[in-house]
Design brief:
Layout (H helix, E strand, L loop, with lengths): L3 E3 L6 H21 L5 H24 L1 H7 L1 E3 L4 H27 L7 H23 L30 H16 L6 H25 L3 H7 L10
Antiparallel strand pairs: 1-2
Helix pairs in contact: 1-2, 1-4, 2-3, 2-5, 4-7, 5-6, 6-7
């Protein structure tokens, strides 16, 4: 059994994490923008808050131990994933800050409001897909690790019937559409880099699961594709 450092608040550590994450998102968007009357900025903050809150409440009812898992620091987490997710965290902040400065200085002037609304709808659908993957997988950790202490088994229900890493599809799309929501082509740079890192993460996680999680290799033979059916 691995050593665990649980987040403050036990099963309610998610509340602290949600509030802190929402505040950081808001500051990283509105401080560089220099204004508060940014509708799409508020939409993004609301999307983070609603998604984190709603999925946490759903998981609390169906699998409360998963909330502890997702708000805990695990010493047996894969080192490569800690590095990747740390970089993605920095890129997310960069995406917000760049979009904020873009709004302040009008670097991007060619994204119509209609396109931003369509991007917002796509972002909501992408997060809904991620939520489906989360509630379908009792071992949906934020950091890749083999959860032997929780009796880790292969998830095969819900969207896992179609691809092996369904949540990354939604995350990949979300990273690309949020800059459009925020009206910033420049913010697409960190967004695209984050998307590419999630592709890398998919390949590395898939490799480790095949090597270390009993039953995963057989599952991979049945569900052939990692992200996109018929492609990869």
């Amino acid at each position: 059994m691995s050593e665990t450092t649980k987040a403050p608040g036990g099963r309610f550590g998610w509340l602290r994490t949600t509030i802190l994450g929402t505040v950081i998102a808001g500051v990283s968007l509105f401080w560089p923008a220099g204004r508060l009357d940014w509708v799409m900025g508020w939409v993004v903050v609301a999307l983070y808050l609603v998604w984190d809150g709603a999925t946490s409440l759903i998981v609390m009812r169906t699998n409360p131990d998963l909330l502890v898992e997702r708000t805990s620091r695990r010493k047996d987490a894969k080192r490569w994933d800690v590095i990747i997710m740390s970089i993605i965290g920095v890129l997310t902040l960069a995406k917000h800050v760049i979009a904020g400065f873009d709004l302040r200085h009008t670097w991007t002037t060619t994204i119509p409001v209609a396109a931003q609304i369509v991007a917002a709808v796509i972002a909501i659908l992408a997060y809904t897909w991620v939520s489906w993957a989360m509630v379908s997988n009792a071992f949906f950790s934020k950091i890749v690790r083999i959860q032997e202490d929780r009796g880790h088994t292969v998830a095969t229900g819900g969207p896992y019937k179609y691809v092996r890493h369904p949540a990354y599809i939604g995350t990949f799309i979300f990273e690309l559409v949020t800059p459009i929501m925020l009206g910033s082509f420049w913010a697409l740079i960190p967004g695209a880099l984050s998307s590419l890192l999630f592709v890398v993460r998919t390949a590395l996680e898939d490799r480790d699961l095949k090597n270390e999680l009993p039953g995963y290799r057989e599952y991979a033979e049945k569900v052939r594709y990692r992200l996109l059916p018929g492609i990869w």
